[in-house]
Design goal:
By secondary structure, the protein is of the alpha+beta class. The protein is built from 19 helices and 33 strands.
C-alpha cells in the first residue's frame, strides 16, 4: 500500500508548519484585543509598551488608517480598529518585539480608553427597529471572491439578502390538504482546527512574502495586493503544512494585520495565535430558520417556504455566500413545484462569521430534515415513506436555475437502512432516525496545474490547492502517476507557493479533486503527448505504436528510457517536458459554467439510546452513504466522510460558541466542548457509491462535506420517533433533552 508522503512527514515530526519556520531577522507580534462588545476608542496609549525591554514598535489603527478597509464581498474591515471596536476580541494594536515573551509582557502595557456604545449582540437585537448600526455604510464588491456580490439593505444591519420564488406558493397553499410550520435555531460553532491561525509576513520595499496556513492563497495574495497597492507578482504566499482548516482558514483572516506589522518595522514578523485567540477570529454563522411546508392528500409536497436569518457577526467575511447557500440547501433533494426562499445575513456585535465545512448546509439541513419528520408524523406517514414519495429523481431539477440532480437519493436511503438492518422493536430503548441532505458545492471552476516530467522519470506537480490534512496532494500525485503510467513514488507535489504554482481559486467547496484533479490530469496528458510526440519525431515512429510505461516509452519492439529520449532528442543528457492543464467555466464545451458542477449528497441513519434520568444521548450506531462518483483514494475518502460526520456530531450534541450580551463566555479550549473518542458510535458504517458519472477525473465527484449534513437531524429525529420529544435548537445537551422528557405529554 502506498502511504501518503505527508503522513510520513507528520508522524516523524519532520513536517514544518508556520510555527516551525524561522525567517532570518524575524520578530514576534502579539495582538492587543478589545474587551468591549461595541465601543468608541477614545485613546490608545502605547508609550509604555514601546519603551519596554525587547519591544521594537507597536502598531495601532492610526498607523494603518490610510490603507482603508478590505473584505471579500463587502469592504467593511479595517486592518486594526481605528475609531471603534465592534466585538470582543477585535484587534486594536500589535506589539512587535524580539521575543514572544517580551511582546506578551508589553501588550499588557497598551492602554486603551473605550466609550461604550449601544450593542446588538443577537439577531433579534440587530433587526430591532431601534437597533444601533454596527456599520454606517455598505461598500459592496462584485465578483471579487465569489461570482456576484452582497446585497445589503441600506441603513440597517442586514448586509445581504437573497430571495428566490419558484411557482406560486400562495396558490399551492390555498388548495393544500395540510400545512405545517416550524422554527429551528443553529448556534455559532468554532472550527477547532488543531493549528491556530499563524502568519509570518516579510515586507521588503515593494515586495511582500507571506507564510500562512491559508486555504485560499490566491485570495490572500489579491487582498494584500489591493491593500498595499502592490503588483500581484510582488506578493508571494507560501503555504507549508496546515493543521486543519475546515473553512476557518479560507478567504483571508489575519494576513493583512501581520503584513501591516512587518510594513511598520521593515522586518519579518510572526503572529502565532493561541487557540483561544482563534476562537475570537471566526466561527460558523448561527441561524434562525422558519420553515413551512404544504402537502396534498397523497402526502406530496406542493409548496415550501423558508425564512432564514444568519448571524454574521461584526464583519461580513464570506457571510453573504453562506446566506445564499443556506437558501439553496434548505430545499433538500426533493421535487417541490412551489418554493419561496428568503435568506438574509445580519451584523451582530459578536465574533465574525465565516465559511465552515459545507457553508450553510448544516444549518439548512438541520431545520429542513427535522421539519420533514414533523410533517410526516402529522399526516400519518413514516419518515422514510414521506421522503421517498417526495424525492427528486436522478436527472430532475429541484429548482429551475440549478443543475439537475445527478444522484439516486432513494438508493442512498436504502443503503443506510440495509447497513443497520431491521428497525428496533417498539419496546426497545433504541430509537432510530433518518435524514438526508443535498448541497450545491460552491465551486468556482477555475484551476490550473503544471506537470514536469524529468529526464530520470521523476515528476513534479505544481498546484495552488492546499493540503490541509484531507489528502489532496496525495490525490493529485495519484492522478498524475496514473495518467503518466509512472510509479506513484516518482511523483512529488510541490509545497503551495504562488510564485511557483499557477492560479487556482483555492481549497474548499469540495472542489480540489474535481477542478484541480482535472487540471493535473490535463497537464499530465499534455506532458504525455509531448514526450510521445518527441519519440515519434526523433525515431520516426507512428504515434499509435507508442505508449508510456514506467521509466520511459514503449515502441512495442523496445522500451526507451527517458534518459535515452532526452539525450537523443536534445543532444545532451538533460531535459524535461512541461505539461500545462487548465479548467475554466468554458471547459467541457461550456458545461462547467452551469451550477452546481455536481451535487454533494448524503444520507444518515442514527440509532440512539437516551438515559431518561440524565438526558444523556448515546449514539450507538450510525450509517452514512454518499454518491462520490469514483473513489480515488479509499482510505482518505472514508476518512473524509467519517471526519465530517463526527464534526457534525459536535454541533449536534456538544458545541456552541456562546455569548452573553456580546461577551463570549466559553471561548477557551477548556470551556468549549467537542466530541472525544468515547462519543464515537460503537458501529460506524461508511458507504461510498461509485457510478463513475462525476465531472472529475475518471468520473469522480467532490466529497468531504456531505456527511456533516444529516447527523444532527438524524439524531433529533430518533429522539422524536423513540422518545416523543422534538429539540429545535442545537446542541441537544443532556439538560435540554431531560427538560423535554419531563415536559412531554
Amino acid at each position: 500500500m502506498n502511504v501518503r508522503a505527508d503522513l510520513i512527514e507528520k508522524v516523524t515530526g519532520r513536517a514544518e508548519f508556520v510555527t516551525d519556520l524561522d525567517v532570518p531577522g524575524m520578530l514576534h507580534g502579539v495582538v492587543v484585543r478589545s474587551p468591549a462588545v461595541h465601543a468608541r476608542i477614545r485613546s490608545i496609549d502605547a508609550s509604555a509598551a514601546r519603551s519596554a525591554a525587547g519591544v521594537v514598535d507597536v502598531l495601532t489603527g492610526a498607523d494603518v488608517e490610510s490603507f482603508g478597509q478590505w473584505g471579500l464581498l463587502l469592504r467593511d474591515r479595517p486592518l486594526l480598529a481605528v475609531d471603534r471596536v465592534r466585538y470582543v476580541g477585535e484587534p486594536v494594536a500589535v506589539v512587535i518585539a524580539a521575543t514572544i515573551e517580551a511582546a506578551e509582557n508589553a501588550a499588557e502595557q497598551v492602554y486603551v480608553e473605550y466609550e461604550e456604545l449601544p450593542r446588538a449582540a443577537t439577531i433579534e437585537a440587530a433587526l430591532a427597529e431601534d437597533a444601533p448600526l454596527i456599520h454606517d455604510r455598505h461598500d459592496s464588491i462584485n465578483d471579487f471572491y465569489f461570482k456576484g456580490g452582497a446585497k445589503p439593505v441600506a441603513n440597517t444591519n442586514v448586509f445581504h439578502t437573497f430571495c428566490n420564488d419558484t411557482g406560486d406558493v400562495d396558490a399551492a397553499e390555498a388548495t393544500a390538504a395540510y400545512i405545517h410550520e416550524d422554527r429551528f435555531r443553529f448556534p455559532a460553532i468554532f472550527h477547532y482546527a488543531m493549528e491556530p491561525h499563524t502568519v509570518i509576513a516579510d515586507f521588503r520595499g515593494n515586495a511582500l512574502t507571506v507564510w500562512s496556513g491559508a486555504q485560499t492563497p490566491a485570495a490572500v495574495q489579491k487582498v494584500l495586493s489591493r491593500i498595499f497597492d502592490l503588483q500581484l507578482a510582488k506578493v508571494r504566499v507560501i503555504v507549508p503544512f496546515v493543521g486543519g482548516g475546515f473553512g476557518g482558514k479560507a478567504s483571508v483572516k489575519i494576513e493583512p494585520l501581520v503584513a501591516a506589522a512587518s510594513w511598520k518595522v521593515g522586518r519579518p514578523v510572526r503572529v502565532a495565535q493561541s487557540l483561544a485567540e482563534s476562537m475570537l477570529t471566526c466561527r460558523r454563522l448561527g441561524a434562525d430558520i422558519r420553515i413551512r411546508t404544504a402537502v396534498d392528500a397523497e402526502g406530496r409536497i406542493v409548496a415550501k417556504s423558508a425564512k432564514i436569518v444568519m448571524d454574521g457577526g461584526a464583519y461580513a467575511d464570506t457571510g453573504p455566500a453562506v446566506a445564499t447557500k443556506t437558501a439553496n440547501r434548505i430545499i433538500g433533494p426533493y421535487a417541490i413545484p412551489n418554493l419561496r426562499l428568503d435568506s438574509s445575513a445580519v451584523y451582530t456585535n459578536t465574533v465574525p462569521g465565516a465559511a465552515f465545512r459545507s457553508i450553510g448546509g448544516p444549518q439548512a439541513v438541520w431545520a429542513a430534515e427535522s421539519h420533514m419528520d414533523n410533517v410526516a408524523a402529522a399526516i400519518g406517514l413514516s419518515p422514510t415513506e414521506f421522503r421517498l414519495r417526495n424525492l427528486a429523481a436522478r436527472g430532475q431539477r429541484i429548482r429551475p436555475d440549478l443543475r439537475a440532480l445527478d444522484v439516486d437519493m432513494s438508493e442512498l436511503i436504502g443503503l443506510v437502512g440495509q447497513s443497520l438492518g431491521s428497525n428496533p422493536q417498539p419496546s426497545s430503548s433504541v430509537a432510530r432516525g433518518l435524514a438526508v441532505g443535498a448541497t450545491d458545492p460552491g465551486i468556482v471552476p477555475i484551476g490550473n496545474a503544471v506537470v514536469r516530467l524529468k529526464i530520470d522519470g521523476s515528476v513534479l506537480v505544481a498546484i495552488a490547492s492546499v493540503e490541509i490534512g484531507q489528502g489532496s496532494h496525495a490525490t493529485m500525485a495519484r492522478i498524475a502517476a496514473q495518467t503518466l503510467n509512472q510509479p506513484l513514488s516518482s511523483v512529488t507535489v510541490l509545497t503551495t507557493d504562488t510564485a511557483v504554482a499557477p492560479f487556482d481559486w483555492g481549497t474548499g467547496a469540495s472542489r480540489s479533486t474535481v477542478i484541480v484533479g482535472l487540471s493535473v490530469e490535463n497537464a499530465a496528458q499534455d506532458a504525455a503527448k509531448q514526450i510521445l510526440d518527441l519519440v515519434a519525431d526523433v525515431w520516426s515512429l507512428p504515434l499509435d505504436q507508442l505508449s508510456l510505461v514506467p521509466g520511459g516509452v514503449s515502441t512495442r519492439s523496445e522500451v526507451l528510457t527517458f534518459h535515452q529520449i532526452f539525450h537523443r532528442a536534445f543532444g545532451v543528457d538533460s531535459g524535461e517536458v512541461i505539461g500545462r492543464g487548465a479548467i475554466t467555466p468554458r471547459s467541457n464545451n461550456g458545461a462547467f459554467a452551469e451550477a452546481p458542477l455536481f451535487w454533494e449528497t448524503a444520507a444518515g441513519l442514527a440509532e440512539v439510546i437516551v438515559d431518561e434520568d440524565t438526558g444523556q444521548i448515546s449514539l450507538k450506531r450510525y450509517a452514512t452513504a454518499a454518491d462520490v462518483g469514483r473513489v480515488v483514494n479509499r482510505v482518505a475518502a472514508e476518512g473524509q466522510d467519517e471526519g465530517a460526520a463526527i464534526q457534525g456530531l459536535g454541533h449536534a450534541l456538544f458545541e456552541a460558541l456562546e455569548f452573553e450580551d456580546g461577551q463570549p463566555i466559553n471561548a477557551t479550549p477548556i470551556d468549549y466542548t467537542i466530541p472525544n473518542i468515547d462519543d464515537v458510535p460503537e458501529t460506524f458504517s461508511t458507504i461510498l457509491v461509485e457510478n463513475e458519472d462525476g465531472p472529475g477525473p475518471r468520473g469522480a465527484k467532490g466529497m468531504g462535506e456531505g456527511a456533516i449534513l444529516p447527523i444532527a437531524p438524524a439524531i433529533a429525529n430518533a429522539l422524536y420517533a423513540g422518545y416523543g420529544i422534538r429539540i429545535t435548537d442545537l446542541p441537544m445537551t443532556p439538560e435540554k433533552v431531560w427538560r423535554a422528557l419531563k415536559q412531554r405529554s
